[in-house]
Each structure stands twice: as structure tokens, then as C-alpha cells.
Amino acid sequence: MAQTLQMEIPNFGNSILECLNEQRLQGLYCDVSVVVKGHAFKAHRAVLAASSSYFRDLFNSSKSAVVELPAAALPT
């Protein structure tokens, strides 16, 4: 029978988010650009989809590497 190994990594959630943000700032492993009012922001598709149903639905229907947000989606 297979054994299960369980380990605890303190502050894992914060550490992984900090690492992903640092990668994004360096342009590493970014797989989508979000364009807002002509400005492009590199991002991780998985992070956007995990944190937003809007992006999750968008990425399920499109595999484009560039996403331009419509003016209606922007705050006034």
C-alpha cells in the first residue's frame, strides 16, 4: 500500500504569491498580456483565471495571448 507523506510549509500561500508577482515583474513565464486603454500588462493566465470568473470565462473561450479589456469593463 502506498504511503502518504504530509508536510507543512509555513506561509506557503504568501510565498507563492510573492514569487509569482516577482516572476510577472521580470516578465518570466507570463503567458498573456492584458491591454487597458492602450497599455499592456503581462500576466499569468492561471493567476487571473483563479482569481476572476471574468478571466476564467474569457480564457475558456479564447486562447489568445493578448486580451484587450472593453471600455465598458473599465471603472470610470
Short synopsis of the structure:
The chain is of the alpha+beta class and 76 residues long. The protein contains three helices and three strands; from the N terminus they run αββααβ.
What does this protein look like?
Helix content is 39%, strand content 17%. The chain has 76 residues and is α+β, with helices and mostly antiparallel strands. It has a domain at 30-69: Potassium Channel Kv1.1, Chain A (2-Layer Sandwich). β1 and β2 form a beta hairpin.
Text of the CATH class of the domain at 30-69: Alpha Beta
Question: Quick one: CATH superfamily of the domain at 30-69?
Answer: Potassium Channel Kv1.1, Chain A
| Content of β-strand | 15-25%
Q: Please, what is the average pLDDT?
A: 90
Helical/strand content category: alpha+beta
Largest sheet: 3 strands, mixed
* CATH fold-level topology of the domain at 30-69: Potassium Channel Kv1.1, Chain A
- List unreliable stretches of 5+ residues: none
Label the CATH architecture of the domain at 30-69.
Answer: 2-Layer Sandwich
* Topology pattern, helix = H, strand = E: HEEHHE
Number of strands: 3
What's the helical proportion of residues? 25-40%
Give the SSE layout.
Blueprint: H1 12-25, E1 32-36, E2 39-43, H2 45-51, H3 53-61, E3 66-68
Parallel strand pairs: 1-3
Antiparallel strand pairs: 1-2
